[in-house]
Write a structure and sequence with these properties.
Radius of gyration: 31 Å
Largest sheet: 2 strands, antiparallel
CATH architecture of the largest domain: Orthogonal Bundle
Strand content: under 5%
Order of helices and strands: HHHHHHHHHHEEHHHHHHHHHHH
Structural class: mainly alpha
Amino acid sequence: MTEATLTAAPRLPWQFAAAERKGHFRAAVLVLPLLLFVIITFATPVVLLLTRSVYDPSIAQTLPTTIAALQNWDGKDLPDEQVYAALAQDFKKVAQDNTSAFVGKRMNYEISGIRSKIIGSVNKSTEFTGAPYKEQFIAADKIWGDRLVWAKIKQAGRSFTDFYLLRSLDLERNADNGIVAVPKSQAVYVNVLARTFYISALVTLITLALGYPVAFMLAHAPNRLANILLIFILVPFWTSLLVRTTAWFVLLQDNGPVNGLIQYLNFSEGPLKLIFSRFGTVTAMVHIQLPFTLLPIYGVMKGISPSYMRAARSLGGGPFYSFFRVYLPLTLPGIGAGCLLTFILCLGYYITPALVGGAADQMVSGTIERAMNQENNWGKASALSAILLLSTLVLFFIYNRIVGIDKVKLG
């Protein structure tokens, strides 16, 4: 070995490392535009939306003097004169800025029906003659003699709050700052969330029951036949979700083809309630979600060698025994991936329940839409979105513990 070779040998690892660093740098440069696009168009809006569920400085900004004065209030009795004077000062500024409706709306989230009373008190406070303010406020409206109202103002005055998250779970804080259940007349969100998870799970199970045999047939059919059948399965992807849902609306209505066939076969004397019902919602969602469950299972089945089943049969296993002990466990990654994908997509369904479902079939996405577009309550919408996101992360964690996220196969 020459002297030059001996001299160059120790430098080889360093040269390899330098070449590898250059390759990593070029890869990072190529990926950077996509990463920035995802951060700007997806991650940032999601983070900003979720922040609304715990951050609401509206009361702290509109009633700053009152919130500062309430910091020393122990919450056991009505506040002292200093707090009422601070409220009168803040209300004068609110009246000048014409933001009384904004304050009333935010406090109406805390106490239903208080919005008009807040607006009326703001208008009357401009006519107050001076101290003492406590008697004048209580004379203007009895709410200012209620300890609960002051407790709610103090709670709403915190910029970071758990109010929206608690309300999304039908909980709230009482006058003593303890967490209690909301009145039954206002307890709606847990039912909506439970309904969303129930419908999503039901659709997932039905698509699994329908999709698994079809995937098995596709995986073992001749290539030409399998390709033709696969085209029929993929046809729904070529059609808009809205069009597919509208088609089910036409099929399931009282005078539609499905009810017409049922009455023609004398299965029913009159039209069945198929539209605006749980049946219509689940049927339309199953039709839309079936390919999402079927295709991952089909992809895994195509990779399973037929020799496994032949070996099981040659060792004395019957067809059912060999299937459940050998074939079915091998398809679990596909089952897990397909069911996980379908369940997560079902959690966010909005169009289908809105068009073919009844009032008792609306899912949490509809509640989020109403909170944003009709109520302009971004805190509620953000809290419900955060619960859905947390549920999705929990599902990923469970799937990773049982199957392993590294074993996910989508095709």
